[in-house]
Design brief:
heterodimer, A: 269 residues, alpha/beta, four-stranded parallel sheet, 44% helix, globular, B: 461 residues, Rossmann fold, six-stranded parallel sheet, 10 strands
């Protein structure tokens, strides 16, 4: 029985290599992976705006599309949280399809840590890396301990990244402050959102990190937008890209221009 | 009363686009949150305490009528006079009546967010009564004719140099003075006089104990005690949700309150009042509803009545820290304020539930486990249901929904968008009309989407 790959809409359109990296990683681990092509978006932009009637049909078709798989794997904590924790109101309580999809959808690192219980990876990444924790990964999926909570939790994203050899960890002062993306928040509150993002970048830069890694590309899309505008010497990478051994490339606008076709966010093999 | 519509992004702009002030404010509050983390981390049963506090409050609110009656009876037995106020106007009238009966011209008041909520100061001043806020932060904002920007740290938005200017103007301190020790000493001497002249002392209430009829007021400056120790009359203003059932429940909350609020193990003063001080004195307790019963009837937002006003959600909120408390235009700002304010007037405060990135930090920090970010999300649904979302946003969400239900159209639209981004000159895609690009670049558009790549590489059909 194959597992399904759920690719968030913005990754499909703007960061295809994150999805390719996820697919290649899972295939390398021996999984039979299928990308159901009818999928589009989990409905989070509408849901977070409060538009219930606009979200409902999107949520229902998502569940239908993924109902036949044993597991749905998604390289995003935020979109996984949407399906797991915010779909209930669009289904009847006894909907077997909904129950199955909500309980069988996993964030990528979570799947590697909890289901596959991965202990080895033949990958090297000899770089200074700082981890940007996504809020929904931490506080909705509990992929790790949030700094407010006194309940000890395993940091699943970091545990999986620790299987990669050569990473020199850089630890920002604020371990899990929000980057200010927040979906439509980024355009509803552009000034506050940008200020939050800049503060995160400053914190990560101060550690001497060269690569800001995250399990959520949406946070990184926002941070990368600021990094490229302000020309900071740091690049962003999705965790899947690191796990599969992609090379590091500086952002396009930086003083050291990238080799042609080697930007991990653009290149597709 | 019709309130002006608050647009949080606009109201926040002057503060957040002043990086010096915004970053200083952010750091000051982050420092408080870090202290809170340290203190909370030192209590091994912290998460258990939060759960317990949440349950006690939920139980109390569920049985509020019974506990209120029990509290009234117990407080009356202790010799206090209990008043009931349905709303802010009634509350203010009750206070004024008591003051008039005692021919009072001057009152001293310790911190009470309830009296802020009822706009008591202006009401009393309009009736010829001098009101002196005795909490240092509140006194500073009062002298500056401002409102508190934080419920625990009312003057957190004001720098010490600005306090120096205010004190120079009102208290005659040296011009240009900004030494906190000097300024605090000046405030101390100034307030000491006011305490001596105060004829009636007004306080807020942190906890009312139904079982005993006692009141608990927590301060760090001891100003509540000073304010009610000299006058013969003490008026305690209390929201009806401040009750806890038993004396033994109190310790759960005192352990959580100060740690959550300021990162102290306990407030410097935890003052208990059981009836009037002596037979010549009076203790008036005003129980104020002002919308709380209505909120209690709302299953979605009822949990927000559990709030003990510690301010931890403000200290942790990345939006609040950068936009400042005044950007909310509400007595209670920050996450809890953004839940409470629309319950008073949804139209005026409709932008507040959106002044949130849904990071969830407030929910994890809240000592009584109010699911704050879920309530903010619930508010958004409520606002859309009431037709209060701007038409442009509703239309764009409708279009997005239609697009997401049609994978082929989605793929075509995506391709068109990416091509446009690639071929159009930078200035056409990056300008003030595109809010995303005011501060940020758009992603470099790839030639191929993932689904196109997948079609070529994995799908043999």
């Amino acid at each position: 029985m194959p597992v399904a790959l759920f690719v968030p809409c913005y990754i499909d359109q703007f960061y295809p290599d994150v999805a390719v990296a996820t697919l290649e990683l899972l295939e390398r681990l021996g999984l039979d992976v299928v990308f159901p092509e009818a999928q589009t978006c989990c409905g989070q932009p509408m849901a977070n705006t409060g538009c219930v009637s606009e979200t409902a049909p999107v949520a229902r078709r998502m569940v239908e599309i993924f109902a036949d798989y044993d597991a749905v794997i998604c390289p995003s904590g935020s979109c996984t949280a949407m399906i797991r924790h915010h779909y209930a109101e669009y289904f009847t309580e006894d909907s077997a399809q909904y129950q199955k999809v909500a309980s069988r959808t996993f964030e990528l690192c979570e799947y590697l840590h909890d289901v596959l219980q991965l202990t080895r990876l033949n990958v090297t990444f000899p770089h200074r890396v700082s981890l940007h924790q996504s809020c929904h990964g931490l506080r909705e999926l509990r992929l790790g301990g949030s700094s407010e909570s006194m309940t000890p939790r395993v940091d699943k994203v970091r545990e999986i990244l620790k299987l990669v050899e050569g990473i020199e960890w850089c630890i920002p002062q604020r371990s899990d402050e929000c980057c200010g993306f927040g979906g439509t928040f980024a355009v509803n509150e552009p000034d506050v959102s940008a200020a939050m993002g800049r503060d995160r970048i400053t914190d990560h830069l101060a550690t001497g990190s060269h690569v800001m890694a995250s399990a959520d590309m949406s946070c990184l899309m926002h941070l990368q937008g600021l990094i490229r505008r302000e020309d900071h010497p740091i690049t962003v990478m999705h965790v899947a890209q690191i796990l599969v051994g992609r090379p590091v490339v500086r952002p396009a606008s930086h003083a050291n221009p990238p080799a042609p076709h080697s930007n991990p966010s653009e290149t597709i093999r | 009363m019709k309130l002006p519509i608050v647009d949080h992004p606009t109201a926040a702009r002057p503060f957040v686009t002043n990086p010096k002030r915004s970053q200083w404010h952010d750091k000051a509050l982050w420092f408080v949150r870090s202290k809170r983390d340290k203190q909370a981390g030192g209590v091994s049963e912290w998460e258990h305490l939060r759960e317990l506090a949440s349950k006690i409050k939920t139980h109390t609110v569920a049985n509020l009528a019974d506990y209120l009656v029990q509290f009234e009876q117990a407080a009356t037995r202790l010799g206090a006079t209990v008043h009931w106020a349905a709303d802010a106007a009634e509350h203010n009238e009750i206070v004024l009546k008591i003051l008039k009966r005692h021919e009072t011209l001057r009152i001293v008041k310790s911190k009470s967010m309830l009296t802020e909520e009822c706009h008591l100061n202006h009401f009393l001043e309009n009736n010829g009564i001098e009101v002196v806020d005795t909490d240092l932060g509140e006194r500073i904002v009062q002298l500056r004719d401002e409102t508190p920007s934080h419920i625990v740290l009312p003057a957190i938005h004001i720098k010490k140099e600005e306090v120096g200017e205010t004190f120079h103007q009102h208290l005659g301190t040296d011009e240009g003075a900004s030494d906190p020790k000097y300024l605090t000493e000046a405030a101390r001497q100034h307030l000491r006089n006011k305490f001596l002249m105060g004829e009636v002392g007004i306080t807020g209430v942190n906890f009312g104990i139904a079982e005993t009829g006692g009141l608990v007021v927590c301060t760090n400056e001891g100003n509540a005690d000073l304010g009610v120790s000299l006058p013969k009359v003490h008026i305690a203003c209390m929201g009806i949700e401040k009750l806890i059932p038993r004396f033994q429940d109190l310790s759960v909350f005192t352990r959580l309150l100060a740690r959550s609020a300021t990162g102290q193990p306990i407030t410097t003063y935890t003052s208990h009042f059981h009836g009037p001080r002596d037979p010549d004195s009076e203790l008036h307790i005003i129980l104020v509803d002002n919308g709380r019963t209505r909120l209690r009837g709302n299953a979605e937002f009822r949990d927000s009545l559990n709030c003990i006003r510690c301010g931890a959600c403000m200290n942790t909120c990345p939006v609040y820290r950068r936009s400042g408390g005044h950007s909310y235009h509400a007595t209670v700002p920050g996450p809890i304020g953004s839940v409470l304010s629309p319950t008073r007037d949804a139209k005026s405060y409709k932008s507040l539930p959106y002044a949130c990135s849904l990071c969830g930090s407030c929910t994890d920090v809240c000592p009584v486990k109010i699911p704050l970010h879920h309530q903010l999300l619930a508010w958004r649904k409520e606002l859309v249901g009431r037709g209060l979302l701007p038409v442009s946003k509703r239309v764009s969400m409708r279009l997005a929904s239609m697009l997401f239900q049609r994978p082929r159209l989605f793929a075509i639209a995506g391709k068109c968008g990416r091509t446009a981004l690639r071929v159009l000159p930078h200035w056409m895609t990056h300008n003030r009309l595109n809010t995303w690009t005011i501060a940020r670049e758009l992603p470099n558009p790839p030639r191929e989407s993932f689904r196109e790549w997948y079609g070529r590489n994995r799908n043999e059909d």
